């Protein structure tokens, strides 16, 4: 239904639409996720809103630059190889519209009701939905089209991190009460008066930490989405890294090793396509490379090698070889230009400036039975910054929203004030329903538009 020739007028129009969609999604992501970083400094009047947003935007930008791209492509690889990089070079318009349209709609819906929902959940659900839609489209079993090992890895990180935030922030708050006796730390903000210098400095420090770590993790997600867009629409230009030349020379000898290794194990249907791709890569001529076809073959081989590493029958030596070959192939297709990083940071920062008020109000007054105190905000953000930064450098996508929200809830429990069951129920329901709803919508959209 939506298959355009590369560089045609329709293809360029689709690129523009999809590019706008990804920018708007990241803008809305700022409503949800980046607002968590500035919630405590704004709510406690430690910084004026404009100051907080500008400072948070700067720290997000630095975090994006320092964060790498492991999370970006960890998300991207949730998609099957034939969707991620169509072998015939067709623009991947159905995938992009299904992905961004679904995630954007659900993000706006939850934001409108002031519910701190996870943008990460929206994206992951939409990615899984596209993979499932692709399986139905090609009459394949879900095990052949969906990388369940990668999905479980991502979902485990999303599930465990809020628990760590809840417990960690609660314990830190309790320890803070035992060690620091400043009463102003444990009182809700009074009027428009800012706290004294020590408290204000502490809250600005925690805002800085969450903003930087948010950029290093969530910023990577937006980098991955932007790269999906420009590669999916204009594969001939962006399918391979601009610095791919030295890596291309290594592809053929690595493919010679990969082909028999993949063929050695049965991977629920992945083997045949991956072996064919590995055989084609053995004849790679740097002077005659067709970017979209080379990219498609590399991702097919990476998928086959990943299946080897996840196969319980594979020996430790074979698993290590599979990982080493993947690491050699990835730099050819996994990269992010500087302007993509800049665009990611700008979209997140601008979204924070426009839509932070709803989420700040929820975090400050609706999570617990009492209003948020500086000590509670600082505890939640210190623990949150540590968890988010750690995940960013290990390649695991986590939700800033879930970690900070859970951290605030932990401090409310630690203070003895208790939590607001009505709001926590709304957040929990959004958490539970986000994945099935986004999966269903994205799968349906992709299937209909790809027929």
UniProtKB/TrEMBL annotation:
<feature type="transmembrane region" description="Helical">
    <location>
        <begin position="154"/>
        <end position="176"/>
    </location>
</feature>
<dbReference type="Pfam" id="PF01384">
    <property type="entry name" value="PHO4"/>
</dbReference>
<feature type="transmembrane region" description="Helical">
    <location>
        <begin position="12"/>
        <end position="31"/>
    </location>
</feature>
<feature type="transmembrane region" description="Helical">
    <location>
        <begin position="122"/>
        <end position="142"/>
    </location>
</feature>
<dbReference type="GO" id="GO:0005886">
    <property type="term" value="C:plasma membrane"/>
</dbReference>
<feature type="transmembrane region" description="Helical">
    <location>
        <begin position="95"/>
        <end position="115"/>
    </location>
</feature>
<keyword id="KW-0769">Symport</keyword>
<feature type="transmembrane region" description="Helical">
    <location>
        <begin position="338"/>
        <end position="356"/>
    </location>
</feature>
<dbReference type="GO" id="GO:0035435">
    <property type="term" value="P:phosphate ion transmembrane transport"/>
</dbReference>
<keyword id="KW-0592">Phosphate transport</keyword>
<feature type="transmembrane region" description="Helical">
    <location>
        <begin position="52"/>
        <end position="75"/>
    </location>
</feature>
<keyword id="KW-0472">Membrane</keyword>
<dbReference type="GO" id="GO:0015293">
    <property type="term" value="F:symporter activity"/>
</dbReference>
<keyword id="KW-1133">Transmembrane helix</keyword>
<comment type="similarity">
    <text>Belongs to the inorganic phosphate transporter (PiT) (TC 2.A.20) family. Pit subfamily.</text>
</comment>
<dbReference type="InterPro" id="IPR001204">
    <property type="entry name" value="Phos_transporter"/>
</dbReference>
<protein>
    <recommendedName>
        <fullName>Phosphate transporter</fullName>
    </recommendedName>
</protein>
<keyword id="KW-0813">Transport</keyword>
<dbReference type="GO" id="GO:0005315">
    <property type="term" value="F:phosphate transmembrane transporter activity"/>
</dbReference>
<keyword id="KW-0812">Transmembrane</keyword>
<feature type="transmembrane region" description="Helical">
    <location>
        <begin position="427"/>
        <end position="448"/>
    </location>
</feature>
<keyword id="KW-1003">Cell membrane</keyword>
